[in-house]
Specification:
about 300 residues, alpha+beta, five-stranded mixed sheet, 7 helices
């Protein structure tokens, strides 16, 4: 009967994938085995710890729904999402910096006219966002779909609320850039907020004495034909969590100074009802290809 010690076992498992038809899948699986086995050896992992890890992953899976992805959240707080982002976007060549998609992108955003208040039914300080999409040389790009989404004044995304299924989206929309590459909209000033702490990922953060907070930001997904999809945030300068984002998503270039204004008229010529905030940001996209993220819950399969 064949017997293995702790190092021979690793070699045997790696060899078991030698006939994998897809070379990339073979490489990924064999490297995964090496890393997992090295972790077990380095930590002298106990049966109790391994059982806890299996239970944690099981509970993480049970927390996932069509509008909540606990595994993405786990990847985010472990810094894996930002690491994957970093290795895939090493050379920006002047393009806007990328950051994590986050677990609350649901896809299929509704196309909305410029100037729409996407948070009209929500309380909060009013904000006007004006933006532009260009190529790396500053040429404006027209007819580009830009998805935007952010949390409300209480720190919740629309998809976290029971009303989402019946009332539909809020603080979430798709705009199409005009001939000069511009788009603008009204909303509320986002605030810093905690990641969900009612699941296993939030419990892990709490139990390890890490704070669960994300600095205030607006998500943008710019999907210009012939260019790499751009997934990013624009963060609000001065937020107290700007240097300690729980998902490690902040980059200096993505921090915007948001001005408080008292003008009676907003930039689109329409009156304001009181003080408001102005966010401006210009996105630069890089030639290339690739697909924008699929809506949450879409199943992607690939034969090994």
């Amino acid at each position: 009967m064949t017997q293995f010690n702790d190092t021979e076992l690793t070699a045997a498992v790696i060899r078991s994938f030698d006939e994998t038809p897809n070379p990339r899948v073979k490489f990924l699986l064999q490297e995964l085995v090496k890393s997992l086995h090295d972790y077990v050896r380095k930590t002298d992992l106990t049966f109790e710890e391994w059982d806890y890890a299996i239970d944690f992953l099981t509970r993480t899976g049970h927390k996932c729904t069509d509008i909540r992805q606990e595994f993405i959240l786990l990847s985010d707080v472990l810094g894996v999402s930002m690491l994957v982002d970093a290795v895939n976007h090493r050379d920006r060549d002047g393009a806007t910096e990328t950051t994590v998609l986050g677990p609350f992108y649901v896809g299929e955003h509704r196309e909305t006219p410029h100037g729409t208040d996407i948070s009209a039914s929500l309380p909060g300080e009013r904000m006007f966002v004006k933006s532009r999409v260009t190529d790396l040389k500053g040429k404006p790009l027209a007819n580009v779909p830009v998805d935007v989404w952010h949390a409300d004044d209480d720190g919740y995304y629309d998809s976290q609320k029971p009303s989402y299924a019946t009332e539909g989206p809020s603080s979430r929309a798709r705009f199409i850039t005009d001939a000069d590459g511009r788009f603008h909209f009204r909303t509320i000033l986002p605030c810093s907020y905690p990641i969900p702490t009612d699941g296993p990922v939030g419990q892990m953060i709490t139990q390890t004495n890490r704070h669960p907070m994300r600095p205030a930001h607006v998500h943008f997904l710019v999907n210009a034909k012939g260019y790499e999809p751009l997934i990013t945030h624009v963060f609000i300068e001065g937020d107290k969590y700007i240097d300690s984002d729980v998902v490690f998503g902040v980059k200096d270039e993505l921090i915007a100074k948001v001005e408080k204004r008292t003008d009676a008229v907003m930039p689109d010529g329409k009156p304001s009802d009181g003080p408001w905030h102005l966010m401006t940001y210009e996105f630069h996209v890089k030639p290339g290809g690739g697909l924008a993220p699929a809506p949450l819950g879409t199943k992607v399969t690939e034969d090994a």
